[in-house]
What we know:
- It is a single chain.
- The protein has nine helices and five strands; from the N terminus they run αβαβαααβαβααβα.
- The chain has helices spanning 28-37, 52-63, 70-78, 82-89, 91-107, 123-132, 142-149, 163-178, 192-207, and strands at 41-45, 67-69, 112-114, 133-139, 183-186.
- It has a five-stranded parallel beta sheet.
- Helix 1 packs across helix 9 (192-207), helix 3 packs across helix 5 and helix 7 (142-149) packs across helix 8.
- Mean pLDDT is 89; it is low at 1-17.
- The structure holds shikimate-3-phosphate (S3P).
- Residues 48, 52, 71, 82, 116-118, 155-157 line the site of shikimate-3-phosphate.
Amino acid sequence: MAKKAAMPPKCLKTEMSETVTPVPTTAPQEAEILAALGTRLVVLVGMMGAGKSTIGRRLAARLNLPFVDADTEIEAAAGMTIPEIFEVHGEPHFRDGEARVIARLLDAGPAVLATGGGSFMREETRRRIGEKAVSIWLKADPDVIMRRVRRRADRPLLQTVDPAATVSRLISEREPTYQHADLTISSREVPHDKIVDECLDALHAKLINPAPSIEIVSAAR
Ligand code: S3P
């Protein structure tokens, strides 16, 4: 079998011994966002099933940032699953733990953080996110949410006789608050990379001063 030609390393000396600049690992738009973020995180908020973890993981990869899932961190801190925390200690205890874990993650430096759907409802958590992060609300329609949450039975709030009605109620209670996120992106049934691209475009537009627009004057006037 023919041997594959060895790939040159990313930073190498040429035969003339001049140093070749390392290949950047992020594209220009991503690099600009990263620089403008500084120490801030990107925090994804929105309903269960809105795609915060799926999109967050891909967004983090594009930005070359760590991805952190608040629910996973809460479970690790408690040594219990979220359904177990709800069952043993109740929702108020879960919400206090959730607020503490998110506060710690916000202090830990740049990352993409996917938050649990109810966490942004707490005023103190919203304030902290506002100080330490740029937030994106992944806004999804009830039918999209229902299609996605039906696949898993690990959301205690949806263990009701009519989960669709519960989702509708939570959406109407929460949407006025989710609107306080810095950016809103519609999460729908399109390839994940399209939503990630839209998040990056929105972050770029928010964080980087847009180029001054050139006024085109019609010659026919
Ligand atoms: C909740 C959402 C869940 C999890 C918990 C409560 C909520 O996270 O934190 O079941 O109140 O909406 P996801 O939004 O990641 O599903």
